[in-house]
Design a protein that fits this description.
Length: 365
């Protein structure tokens, strides 16, 4: 279904990029940027005009705030508000309200489970707390390159089932200690002082280490763990280093059957989407999460699903899941995971199905 959408470039702050849904209409991918992750919207850009039509506010089905609400929040450590950007957002929302049109806001932040001061908007967030979810809150995908296309010649490598499942993880994790607890206390104080919430950006990394500990103890599981002391890719200084870490990360996924996917700073896992992209089976640690298209996708069909409070049982859950799959079902599930990502969670897939978030009453006849 093709949606008629409205936005206004005059409400885009000078230092901000348009939200992803609008980028093909207002800008083009940078041809001189050689990094593969800069090509994340190429396929969506090719079909964007068949999915959305930019119209006047009067004719539009929906209005879209042109910038990510992250630009209002700025530094997630301090949660300080950029008052000038917020003012632009509220002005835009008021204009849309006067026109009696529904408003869509994107909020791709680690702390994006926080409320925004605009009533009745549809808000698409990366980080959501299911227990605090409002009716207009939806989970969004993570925007990044197709790992198989850019690094594996667009050929999905398929693994055959073995008696011992291979569980992989390459990333940042650590044990909780007094230094981490002190950081949590300081962070909570700073954020609350600036009007934010007390959601901890540190809990996820210690949960990862807890899961790794339990999985490593099982003699029936082969582990493929690379535990890093920092967020190596994001902290790398140059493109060459970033590519090196990216390839190591991808190799870890490709050479494993299952990948541990647990939240990091925010209450979501980019690794979940990357695992599916590579046709591997996620071991998803649920920390009160909301996943994209949860009203359409039976997520537990594609994942070893475990609540964070049940981590001591994680090895047993993986073995039960693995042993219940026949060799052919194990192969088929790899293809299904890849298909799920392409059709629903890639940038083009997410926006192709975007209309399904909204009741029929919002579409113009």
């Amino acid at each position: 279904m093709k949606l008629k959408i409205f936005s206004d470039l005059h409400y885009l702050p000078k230092a901000s990029r348009p939200v992803t849904i609008l980028q093909p209409f207002w800008s083009s991918p940078a041809d001189n940027d050689v990094s593969p992750w800069s090509k994340s919207i190429v396929h969506y850009a090719k079909i964007s005009h068949s999915l959305f039509e930019i119209t006047s506010l009067e004719k539009a089905d929906f209005a879209i705030l042109p910038f990510d609400w992250l630009d209002v929040r700025g530094n997630t450590w301090t949660a300080k508000i950029n008052s000038s950007v917020m003012s632009l957002g509220i002005q835009f929302a008021e204009m849309v309200k006067q026109a009696k049109k529904p408003l869509i806001v994107f909020f791709a932040s680690d702390c994006s489970h926080e409320e925004i001061p605009i009533k009745d908007a549809f808000v698409f967030r990366q980080s959501l707390l299911a227990s605090q979810r409002d009716p207009g809150d939806f989970a969004m995908n993570a925007v990044y390159e197709d790992l198989i296309e850019h690094y594996h010649e667009n050929e999905l490598p398929i693994r055959q089932k073995k008696a011992k499942p291979v569980v992989g993880f390459n990333g940042y994790a650590y044990k909780t200690n007094w230094k981490v607890k002190l950081k949590e206390i300081v962070h909570k104080g700073v954020v609350l002082k600036n009007g934010g919430t007390s959601f901890s950006p540190y809990k996820g990394h210690s949960l990862r280490m807890e899961a790794i500990k339990y999985l490593s103890k099982s003699l029936e599981i082969e582990t493929n763990f690379v535990v890093r002391e920092n967020m190596a890719f994001f902290e790398a200084n140059d493109l060459e280093q970033k590519l090196k870490f990216r390839m190591e990360y991808l190799r870890n996924i490709i050479e494993s059957d299952y990948i541990l996917c647990c939240r990091g700073r925010g209450n979501f896992s980019i690794r979940l989407f990357e695992t599916l992209c590579c046709g591997r089976i996620p071991i998803f640690v649920d920390t009160d999460c909301v996943l994209p298209y949860d009203f359409k996708i039976d997520w537990k069909k594609y994942c070893v699903w475990i609540d964070s409070k049940d981590l001591p049982q994680i090895a047993r859950r993986v073995l039960e899941f693995h042993n219940n799959l026949s060799p052919q079902e194990f192969v088929d599930l790899q293809y299904e995971c890849r298909r799920l990502w392409k059709e629903w969670l890639s940038t083009q897939g997410f926006f192709t199905n975007f209309w399904q978030h909204f009741p029929e009453k919002y579409f113009k006849k």
